[in-house]
Specification:
Blueprint (H helix, E strand, L loop, with lengths): L2 E4 L2 E4 L3 E2 L5 H14 L3 E3 L7 H10 L8 E6 L6 H15 L4 E6 L8 H13 L3 E7 L3 H10 L4 E7 L7 H9 L3 E5 L11 H10 L3 H10 L4 E2 L6 H6 L10 H8 L14 H4 L2
Parallel strand pairs: 3-4, 4-5, 5-6, 6-7, 7-8, 8-9, 9-10
Antiparallel strand pairs: 1-2
The chain binds NADP nicotinamide-adenine-dinucleotide phosphate (NAP).
């Protein structure tokens, strides 16, 4: 699997989103994904299913070293002692000694960012994570994080799909060598049925979802689609045998609108829980 290299981290260009993959489905889909060639798992303590993802990981037969594992610290656990407790819990859930990437799940204005970033650096020093990163950070917060962090920031994980324009955040990340990971790349199921995406898909023998994912990959963004449907697992990996033309990329960009978000930032932690 190709990787995006950013500030020392080598992140496989497609990841498996694991939100809501609970119980047996979580273990089964994780195992199937790894057997199919996925090498990047996107987890979070708040999803409440790291144990199941861990079961799938260990059952897959794929070596731990070959899988890029991301997990996230909940916005309520960003003070240093709580953060360390949360990270140890995630490692125990997943049954791994470290993760590849630890993200601040959502910023929390109640807890000084400097303290949180200090604690994140400490997690790296203690060997619990190989890289650190952020999620749901705005341009202003990215600038602040870069100034405050003693460790390089590998990625900013944000909502991104054809119905959103994330150019400003992308540019702010690029300025500091930070990658962008795209969550909700299928807009939580709002991509299938879109006329433009279906038309473009037809021209390439692909589905609208594959077009939406390719649109991100072609911009150097790392999508982490979630699926509980085995056929979609392989479809979401089959993105490297076609290229969208500049005119098609421009048509897709025109789908972005100011109210295109599917995750409401006002309710964000709950929406992603
Ligand atoms: N950092 C954050 O704050 C944050 C916030 C939200 C999400 N995330 C992460 O990002 C991941 C992805 O986001 P998401 O799960 O919210 O939404 P998503 O991946 O955009 O959408 C998932 C939906 O798309 C459908 N789907 C997937 N592949 C498909 C395909 N090839 N064709 C048709 N439908 C397809 C799935 O249905 P089927 O199951 O039937 O395929 C599911 O209903 C999450 O799982 C989580 O890991 C992070």
């Amino acid at each position: 699997m190709q990787t995006i290299d950013a500030n020392g981290a080598k992140m496989p260009v497609i990841g498996l989103g694991t939100w809501q993959l609970n119980g047996d489905v979580g273990s089964r889909i994780t195992e199937q994904a790894l057997k199919l060639g996925y090498r990047h798992l996107d987890c979070a303590l708040i999803y409440g299913n790291e144990k199941e993802v861990g079961v799938g990981l260990h059952a897959s037969g794929v070596k731990r070293e070959d899988v890029f594992i991301t997990t996230k610290v909940p916005h309520t656990e960003l003070a240093p002692a709580a953060l360390e407790r949360a990270v140890k819990q995630s490692l125990a859930n997943l049954r791994v000694s470290d993760v590849n990437l630890l993200l601040i799940h959502w910023p929390n204005p109640q807890i000084p960012l400097a303290e949180t970033l200090g604690a994140m650096a400490e997690m790296k020093k203690k060997g619990y994570t190989r890289h650190i990163g952020i999620s749901n950070f705005t341009v202003a917060l990215i600038e602040e994080a870069v100034k405050l962090s003693s460790e390089p920031i590998a990625t900013n994980q944000i909502e991104w799909h054809p119905y959103l324009d994330e150019e400003k955040v992308r540019a702010a990340c690029a300025k500091h060598g930070i990658a962008v990971t795209a969550y909700c790349p299928i807009a939580r199921g709002k991509v299938p049925g879109n006329e433009t995406l279906e038309r473009i898909g037809k021209a390439h023998g692909k589905s609208s979802s594959q077009v939406a994912l390719r649109y991100l990959v072609q911009q150097g963004v790392i999508p982490i689609p979630r699926t509980a449907t085995p056929a979609h697992l392989s479809a979401n990996l089959a993105l490297f045998d076609f290229t969208l033309t500049p005119a098609e990329m421009a048509d897709i960009a025109k789908l972005a609108k100011p109210d295109g978000r599917v995750v409401n930032p006002a309710h964000s932690p709950q929406w992603d829980a």
